[in-house]
């Protein structure tokens, strides 16, 4: 039985992780949950999974949850013992708030495996603290590795921590690498769906609304990653994620548009063999693998039928229409703190696009300007990289926008 701490339990990956737990009650127990502010859904999750600890990042929402629990205790139906009360899971849970709350979960003795499915660079500090505390991590939060991949993986190696990817492409590569020698690897090929605008002309993409951008052809995901897929920044972030997760230089990481999202990624070896991982697009499959690794457990997910699909197609990414992908390679090339600048700028600009404050191509335009305003340096501490993250958010919000 593995005790899970799930950061971002109310999101797309968080909810699907809970679905995997529901399907495998004998293998996993949920001991801690954390959210940004969705306390109404968190309360339902507490009732169902009975965790010992929960954290709410937003202090006001956290305070509200505590107050609601106190009221429930005072007004709840009279029962012989507290345990008979239907709200008992809410009475016994410990509620924490803020970043300290997330860190408390990431380092808690109640947690064997931390599932980090928070969105954005907010996931970085809990990841680092979990590593320091010796916890293995199932990582969906790709921004952790984009912002500080070198530092995070260095710490994980020193501590002997297993970081198992949840991101579908990285789960695929991770599986294709099993049992192989690192020297045998020729290149990693990350597949990309191409997003909702794959076939659109540049002049059409220019006018795309955020509602159109949210309509991913193959995956139902959170809002931020859906916009990233539409700009193809998601693939850029994934190149950086792969660079650090697998310790492979960027020249050996290619991207290939594959609209069907059936091949989740591939690894080419020195003998010209290519190993790929395929499946019906369903994030519960890589989530379950990340939870069960190094074992594989049975999963009643839809089986792949290639004879029904018949054709798989491929094309080169077009960085003229999707410049964010090129910017991500440039950030890696620049090195040091530049990927953190790319990421922080992107997070602010995606939110501005969702709020209809900027247009689709303003996203790469302002990211480029933020990168030009920054002189990258080799960081060695978490504090240094967090300061760069703070600087770029402030610069984009208050100088560029
Ligand atoms: N969705 C997918 O299919 C995939 C996602 N990923 C990656 O997984 C991560 C999560 O994505 P996704 O599930 O789509 O995102 P969602 O937007 O659906 O969910 C985000 C979750 O994180 C919580 N959250 C956000 N900020 C904080 C914070 N500061 N502290 C605590 N909790 C926080 C939210 O809480 P609340 O509900 O309260 O706001 C919510 O539970 C991203 O890094 C994404 O790139 C990778 C591959 C596929
Ligand atoms: C499911 C998953 O892993 C996403 O990151 C997905 O890959 C997004 O699709 P794109 O290939 O369009 O970025
Ligand atoms: Mn992915």
From TrEMBL:
Specify the 1-deoxy-D-xylulose 5-phosphate reductoisomerase N-terminal domain's residue ranges.
5-149
Keyword Isomerase among UniProt keywords: no
For the DXP reductoisomerase C-terminal domain, which residue ranges apply?
278-394
The record's Gene3D superfamilies line, in alphabetical order, gives: 1.10.1740.10, NAD(P)-binding Rossmann-like Domain (3.40.50.720)
The positions annotated for binding 1-deoxy-D-xylulose 5-phosphate are 142, 168-169, 193, 216, 229, 234-235, 238
Q: In which pathway does it act?
A: Isoprenoid biosynthesis; isopentenyl diphosphate biosynthesis via DXP pathway; isopentenyl diphosphate from 1-deoxy-D-xylulose 5-phosphate: step 1/6
- Cofactor(s) recorded in Swiss-Prot or TrEMBL: Mg(2+); Mn(2+)
Source species, domain of life:
Bacteria
What catalytic activity does the UniProt entry give for this protein? 2-C-methyl-D-erythritol 4-phosphate + NADP(+) = 1-deoxy-D-xylulose 5-phosphate + NADPH + H(+)
- UniProt KW keywords: Isoprene biosynthesis, Magnesium, Manganese, Metal-binding, NADP, Oxidoreductase
Q: Where is the signal peptide?
A: none
Q: Name one GO molecular function term.
A: NADPH binding
Q: Which SUPFAM superfamilies match?
A: 1-deoxy-D-xylulose-5-phosphate reductoisomerase, C-terminal domain (SSF69055), Glyceraldehyde-3-phosphate dehydrogenase-like, C-terminal domain (SSF55347), NAD(P)-binding Rossmann-fold domains (SSF51735)
Report the family membership: Belongs to the DXR family.
Entries under PANTHER family matching the protein: 1-DEOXY-D-XYLULOSE 5-PHOSPHATE REDUCTOISOMERASE, 1-DEOXY-D-XYLULOSE 5-PHOSPHATE REDUCTOISOMERASE, CHLOROPLASTIC
Query: What is this protein's function per UniProt?
Result: Catalyzes the NADPH-dependent rearrangement and reduction of 1-deoxy-D-xylulose-5-phosphate (DXP) to 2-C-methyl-D-erythritol 4-phosphate (MEP).
Q: Which protein are we looking at? A: 1-deoxy-D-xylulose 5-phosphate reductoisomerase
Originating species: Isachenkonia alkalipeptolytica
């Amino acid at each position: 039985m593995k005790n899970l701490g799930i950061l971002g339990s109310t999101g797309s990956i968080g909810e699907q992780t809970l679905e995997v737990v529901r399907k495998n009650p004998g293998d996993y127990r949920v001991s801690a949950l954390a959210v940004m502010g969705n306390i109404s859904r968190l309360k339902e999750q507490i009732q169902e999974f009975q965790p010992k600890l929960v954290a709410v990042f937003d202090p006001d929402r956290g305070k509200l949850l505590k107050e609601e629990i106190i009221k429930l205790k005072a007004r709840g139906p009279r029962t012989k013992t507290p345990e008979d009360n239907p709200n008992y899971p809410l009475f016994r849970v410990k509620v924490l708030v803020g970043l300290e709350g997330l860190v408390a979960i990431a380092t808690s003795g109640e947690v064997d495996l931390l599932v980090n499915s928070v969105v954005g660079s907010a996931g970085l500090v809990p990841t680092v603290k979990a590593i320091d505390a010796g916890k293995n991590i199932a990582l969906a939060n790709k921004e952790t590795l984009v912002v500080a991949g070198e530092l995070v993986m260095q710490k994980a190696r020193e501590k002997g921590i297993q970081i198992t990817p949840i991101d579908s492409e990285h789960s695929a590569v991770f599986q294709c690498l099993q049992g192989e020698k690192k020297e045998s690897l020729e290149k990693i090929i990350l597949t990309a769906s191409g997003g909702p605008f794959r076939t659109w002309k540049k002049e059409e993409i220019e006018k795309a609304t955020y509602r159109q951008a949210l309509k991913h052809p193959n995956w139902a995901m959170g809002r931020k990653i859906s916009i990233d897929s539409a700009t193809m920044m998601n693939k850029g972030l994934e190149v950086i994620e792969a660079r650090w997760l697998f310790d492979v230089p960027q020249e050996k990481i290619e991207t290939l548009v594959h609209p069907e999202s059936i091949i989740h990624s591939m690894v080419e070896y020195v003998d010209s063999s290519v190993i790929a991982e395929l499946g019906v697009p369903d994030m519960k499959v890589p989530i379950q693998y990340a939870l069960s690794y190094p074992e594989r457990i049975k999963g009643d997910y839809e089986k792949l039928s290639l004879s029904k699909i018949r054709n798989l197609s491929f094309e080169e990414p077009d960085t003229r229409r999707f410049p964010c992908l090129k910017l991500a390679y440039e950030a890696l090339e620049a090195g040091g703190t530049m990927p953190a600048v790319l990421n922080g700028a992107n997070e602010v600009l995606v939110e501005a696009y969702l709020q209809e404050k900027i247009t689709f191509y303003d996203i790469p335009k302002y990211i480029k300007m933020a990168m030009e305003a920054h002189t990258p340096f080799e960081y060695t501490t978490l504090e240094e990289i967090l300061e760069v993250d703070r600087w770029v958010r402030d610069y984009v919000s208050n100088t560029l926008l």
